[in-house]
Amino acid sequence: MNKKFIKIFISLFIIVFFAWLVKWIYGQFGRINFDEIAIVLNSGIGGTDSQILWAFVRKVLLRSLFYAGLGAFICHWFKYRRNVLLLVFGCYTAFMIIQIAIRNVQFGSFFNFTKSNFYETEYVDPQSVNIQWPQKRNVLIIALESIEKVYGDQEKFGEVLTPYITELEQKNISFENYHSIPGLSHTIAAITGFVSGLPLFYTSYRNTDKMTGAYGIGKILNRAGYQTWSIFPASGNFSKKESFMYHMGFDHVIDGEKIYAQLKNPPKQKPFHGVDDGVLFEWSKPVLSDIIKSKQPYFIFMETINTHLEGFFTDYCRNMGFKQETTQDITKCDDKIIYDFVKWFRAADPTAVIILLNDHKQHSGPLMKKLNTISNRPLANVFINTPIFQGADLHRPVSAMDFFPTMLSAAGAKIDGCKMALGVSLDTACQGTKTLRERFSDQELQSMMEQKNDLYYQLATGKDKK
């Protein structure tokens, strides 16, 4: 183990580690987006599911150590001959280049140094908007994890994966052209769009909290006299979601770790150090019953997790009679869990507005073999008890950012100008105001949103760009 061996080992390790990392990220998430990677690393990996961490250790770290050691040993065996060194380093570098070339690498704003005035032109500060409240309706939001409209197509999968959510879409209001776009294409980014009307891009390694300069939906609702709740199944440490929701103005934030700690008979499964959807909804019922009984108007934002990536097999679903063998089994069970909860909530508060919003497309897992063959993959969404959409165009192109003002309109607010942040309220009264996706192609919008911008930096970090 001389110094030359160590130097060669470290050099080869860096090369092969990057190659295996690219391959592993693509296998896990179906794409490689430097913005998302930087955001996750910047926020820390607290609350990350142990299965993902173990997969990283096995498929990236241990493989890299093995192949780096093998290459260094070959060089040592041949007495560090120049032609052998060049051959080994050439092969390893070629392997890395091939992995980068064949993967869907998206650099996003991470390596985009073009500056623009897009946000100065398009962003409407929620604090400057005149909002009237002729009525104040109670609202429940459920952010669905990776549930696409195509799951309701029997021809695509041989069965309907989400018969209940599809039925809710058909019997209520559902926008047919709601798609995931860059900056809103993973869970915390989509939720950022829902609650702040902004996309989420990487800004600064010094800033671990997100959107600290933005004015979130919770603050708007608090100002209107609402009580605001955020309840989700994963650990609040993952993506720093707990602190993020507080920044967005939510008075009460309850994560999966807090719920798990209160369970008398906790399950063995702990998705992202929290609880599965069935446990989440069962635990929530008495809490929500008390909220409903209170005289103060409420806004509750919940999330699901069972269908994240390849999904989580749970005893809760087995006890419901669902097989737990494939991702399709998980999806069908979660569909029933969500429907039963919606049914319960409608009985508990018949006048409440209920909104289901999918966060993003499915990125990985067995279903991708069929999903990758489908060109048009809109996201599931349902609006229940919302007369504001009577006569509305349900085929207009919309994004997660448009649901920011739309949720307020559904709660009874009247928004002057219909615009807020980068979103447009989708109620019928605002139909003459075009969304960003109606004005620009998704490619144009991606290019403009990813460019460096001082206002966006201030909204994201709460600091002026120096």
Topology:
Blueprint: H1 3-29, E1 32-33, H2 34-43, H3 50-77, H4 82-102, E2 105-106, H5 118-122, E3 131-132, E4 139-144, H6 154-157, H7 163-171, H8 187-196, H9 217-223, E5 227-231, H10 241-247, E6 252-254, H11 256-262, H12 277-293, E7 298-303, H13 315-319, H14 327-348, E8 353-358, H15 368-371, E9 381-384, H16 403-410, E10 414-415, E11 419-420, E12 423-424, H17 436-439, H18 442-450, H19 454-461
Parallel strand pairs: 1-2, 4-7, 4-8, 5-6, 5-7
Antiparallel strand pairs: 3-10, 8-9, 11-12
Helix pairs in contact: 1-3, 1-4, 7-14, 12-14
Notes on the structure:
With 466 residues, the protein is an alpha/beta fold. The chain folds into 2 domains: 3-106, no CATH class; 126-461, Alkaline Phosphatase, subunit A, CATH 3.40.720. The chain has helices at 3-29, 34-43, 50-77, 82-102, 118-122, 154-157, 163-171, 187-196, 217-223, 241-247, 256-262, 277-293, 315-319, 327-348, 368-371, 403-410, 436-439, 442-450, 454-461; strands at residues 32-33, 105-106, 131-132, 139-144, 227-231, 252-254, 298-303, 353-358, 381-384, 414-415, 419-420, 423-424. The chain has a 6-stranded mixed beta sheet, sandwiched between helices. A hairpin with a 2-residue loop joins strand 11 (419-420) and strand 12 (423-424). Helix 1 (3-29) runs parallel beside helix 4 (82-102) and helix 7 packs across helix 14. The longest helix is centred in the N-terminal third of the chain and has 28 residues, at 50-77. It is globular and about 85 Å long. The N and C termini lie far apart (47 Å). The model has no long low-confidence stretch (mean pLDDT 89).
